[in-house]
Amino acid sequence: MNHAPVRPLTARRTGPLRGRARVPGDKSISHRALIFGALAVGKTTVTGLLEGEDVLNTAKAMQALGATMERTGEGAWSIHGVGVGGFAAPREPLDFGNSGTGCRLVMGAVAGCPIAATFDGDGSLRKRPMRRILDPLAQMGAKTEESAEGGRLPIRLQGARDAIPIVYRTPVASAQIKSAVLLAGLNAPGETTVIESEASRDHTERLLTHFGATVVTEPDGKHGRRITLTGQPELTPAPVTVPADPSSAAFPLVAALLVPGSEVILENIMMNPLRIGLITTLREMGASIDVVNARSEGGEDMADLRVTASPLRGVDVPADRAPSMIDEYPVLAVAAAFAQGTTRMRGLQELRVKESDRLAAVLDGLHANGVTCAIEGDDLIVEGAARAAGGGTVATHMDHRIAMAFLVMGLASEKPVAVDDTTFIATSFPDFTPMMTRLGADFS
Ligand code: S3P
Fold first, then answer.
1. Which helix (H) or strand (E) holds 336?
2. 172 CA closest ligand 1 atom index
3. Pairing mode, if any, of strands 224-230 and 152-158?
4. Beta strands per DSSP E along 130-211
5. Does the chain have fewer CB atoms within 10 Å around its N or its C terminus?
6. What is the CATH architecture of 27-241?
């Protein structure tokens, strides 16, 4: 549980943002690099790891389950893994802090092993639904020994003595559900298959292949995928270079678009096609985002992005784009508040179960800052203006992305925007405030 003191912050209208910035390593890949390193036989080296609280909690969990880890430099880690099926029962509950990804992926990894572990987290994570993970894991032979009401944390999970390979269709497009099933399937004999009707981020599949497992991905329907893992592989250590996180880059990127006269270069951004829905959408809105120096490294596409302040216009964002930009809606909603006309973001039901109810938090934050907006069903509708009013205080609800999105808003709005707590920014982007300040942001 997190008892850190509350740290409010105010963002004020500022002159142009300028310069180059390197945002931290991708959070999704960082969690997975540690988990797969812990499941490989021998030493895995990782560079560019995001050293945010979420990922550090996954590192602690891997150590509690028997892996050895050493930090050898900034973002550089070496991991001595225990092999698939080699986890030992942890003595203490595993505390994942604010991180749904860490908790759910490790639940999958534990579910395939004959050990029991207790999973816990902070006040935000204790509210998040875990049944979506526990249901398929039960089909694979794991048992939930105890859980709070509604399948919430804390949960004691007893992994399967002999994990059962299954074919599982995910009820929502979620890389966390897919990954939990595949991680449990690692220690099951035969083939474990996950079918998703909308493709979600594929870092688990890519990294499993990188570590020598056999993973076959086939199309399923118009936007879906069928992913089959051959169980009980020996995972072979392979070096992982973590590219910069496009979901963190979204904040300086939108700030540079909104603050007149800005030009910012964001370096080494991962351009995985399943992660760049925000760039597609902002370009449709009229944003000037140049992809410079596109390359491929360590199995992922990467590029530098040159972002120039641009007038934006409202657009209709289709629901089938949501999985490729699911974490970017808070900051897209802020961009929409500065766009000419109406932006409709469709199919956002999953935002209700993130670190906070992001649909409600964004609506309240925009209202507090004089923006006309509404929720219709699962759609968020924002009426833009060339310069949003600001002047409000935003409740961040233990949610890093709500805090960062509204600080970005305050850099371009008429009046300052205050957020009630920035503590949770450290979960994904510990250097956010100094980095933005170096680019010219006025935070105090
Ligand atoms: C993540 C998947 C997404 C995303 C989260 C990271 C992952 O969640 O919101 O920040 O690394 O697998 P869902 O899979 O629940 O959509």
1. helix 329-337
2. 16
3. unpaired
4. 143-148, 152-158, 167-169, 191-196
5. C
6. Alpha-beta prism (3.65)
Enumerate the H helices of 186-270 as residue ranges.
203-210, 246-258
34: tokens are 């540690």
**Domain(s) of CATH 3.65.10.10: residues in the chain:** 9-25+243-443, 27-241
- Residues with beta carbon inside 6 Å of ligand 1? 28, 101, 174-176, 179, 200-201, 326-327, 350
Q: Where are the alpha helices (DSSP H) in 94-202?
A: 100-111, 131-139, 175-185
What is the rounded CA–CA span in Å between residue 224 and residue 277? 16
Q: How far is the CA of 19 from the centre of ligand 1 (A)?
A: 30
Closest CA to ligand 1's atom 13: 174
- Lookup result for tokens 């004089």: 370
CA of 278 to the centre of ligand 1 (A): 15
**Cα 179 to middle of ligand 1, angstroms:** 10
pTM, two decimals, is: 0.98
CA-to-CA distance for 153 and 146, rounded, in angstroms?
9
pLDDT value for 386? 87
Q: Nearest-CA neighbor of 9 among 427, 417, 426?
A: 417
Q: Which atom of ligand 1 is nearest to the CA of 176?
A: 14
Provide the terminal-to-terminal Cα distance of the chain, rounded to the nearest Å. Answer: 27
CA of 107 to the centre of ligand 1 (A): 14
389: left (phi over 0), alpha (psi -120 to 50) or beta: alpha
Give the helix, strand, coil percentages of the chain, each rounded to 5: 35, 30, 40
Among 176, 200, 270, 272, residue to substitute to test ligand 1 (most atoms within 8 Å of Cβ): 176
Say how far apart CA 225 and CA 205 lie, in whole Å: 12
How many CB atoms are closer than 10 A to CB 145? 11
Which one from 120, 327, 399, 421 is the annotated catalytic residue? 327
At 314 the pLDDT is 98
Tell me how far the alpha carbon of residue 203 is from its chain's centroid: 11
Low-confidence ranges of the chain (pLDDT < 50): 1-2
Q: For domain 9-25+243-443, which architecture applies?
A: Alpha-beta prism (3.65)
Pairing of strands 191-196, 393-394: unpaired
Instruction: Extract the tokens encoding 188.
Output: 């099951």
Q: State which ligand 1 atom lies nearest to the alpha carbon of 177.
A: 14
